[in-house]
């Protein structure tokens, strides 16, 4: 199939919307699948087993399964940009709970790799995170960047993922002005072994820079625990 990155919105004007979870025509998310997603709501503090060193306290909205899994995959890999309001609402629920009691939280989305940005023509997670501001005013700072290539994570266990991601993230220029003393909330769509969030937390505390006061994470969904 011909893939033209960045044409998701144009495609939505040409072809009628179909449910991203089951394919039935007419709506971005059909009533039955919307109920299925809602039934997966299980806001809880999550930690993979075993948690990698540096894994931040992480709140998740639900499990990476069923209709929720299908819409996350469709948004990221199938150009379903019409799902942004749905996923932003879910992530917004998580963020609302995570930032409760914080004075001036800063949302830091996980970065896309340069190859991913070229292929997709966008940064799916950053797009979702920015939509949260329509729900609640909050600062967003995309200060993380990928500094080296990593292997595809599919099929890797927790040790392999940790080794694969070690040292893979860094900070954009000027990040210290945002991070110094900040209450950071990392945001992501899926947490599996926790290696990505642990690496992000490490990068936020780059040696020689004044880092954040605290680091938490808010994630849409978590996979089943794995060794």
Keywords:
18% strand; globular; alpha/beta; 8 strands; 9 helices; 6-stranded mixed beta sheet; Rossmann fold; 227 residues; two-stranded antiparallel ribbon
Describe this structure in words.
This protein has 227 residues and is α/β, with parallel strands linked by helices. It has one domain: Rossmann fold (3-Layer(aba) Sandwich), CATH 3.40.50. Helix content is 36%, strand content 18%. The protein has helices at residues 8-14, 31-39, 66-77, 84-98, 114-120, 124-131, 158-165, 175-179, 195-204; strands at 44-46, 58-63, 105-109, 139-140, 144-146, 169-171, 183-191, 214-222. The strands form two sheets. Strands 1-2-8-7-3-4 form a six-stranded mixed beta sheet, with helices on both faces. It has a two-stranded antiparallel sheet with strand order 5-6. The radius of gyration is 17 Å and the shape is globular. The termini are far apart. The model is unreliable at 1-8 and 10-14 (pLDDT under 50).
